[in-house]
Design goal:
By secondary structure, this protein is mostly beta strands. The chain has one helix and nine strands. The protein is elongated.
Length: 136
């Protein structure tokens, strides 16, 4: 059984074997700055743009004591391909928990796969890395 790392990531209900080392959630603004005749600037406030989520997931090819259930890499790559090809939106969920079990805030967004890149590197052993970008 894996130890609680404090973060659980889910892509369309599929739990990642362990949490990525970092997560970036970027809320894009659409404000517009306009220069007035008197050379002053004003900022025209607009509704926020689409939110982008970026992270790198490690997909192990061997069992680690700190990882969750081990699935073949194709389980994850097939899921990403399916979501893109079927133009399917899905739930991206991050559950955050302190080591003592206290629940922190969660992220639960309806997103689509924007892009992903699979990388293999000798320095990473047999693990596969996938850089992914999701968009709300």
């Amino acid at each position: 059984m894996a130890t609680n790392t404090g973060y659980d990531f889910y892509i369309d209900g599929l739990k990642l074997p362990f949490a990525p080392p970092s997560l970036e959630i970027k809320v894009n603004g659409r404000n517009e700055t306009v220069t007035l005749i008197n050379q002053g600037d004003i900022n025209i406030l607009k509704s926020p743009g689409l939110t982008e989520i970026s992270f790198e997931m490690r997909l192990p090819q061997q069992q680690y004591p700190f990882a969750g259930e081990l699935y073949p890499v194709s389980t994850y790559t097939d899921k990403l391909k399916e979501l893109m090809e079927e133009k399917k939106s899905f739930q991206f969920i991050v559950v955050r928990t302190l080591p003592n079990g206290t629940s922190l805030f969660d992220t639960d967004l309806t997103v689509a796969v924007e892009e992903w890149t699979m990388k293999e590197d000798a320095d990473e052993g047999f693990d596969v890395l996938i850089d992914g970008t999701l968009k709300q």
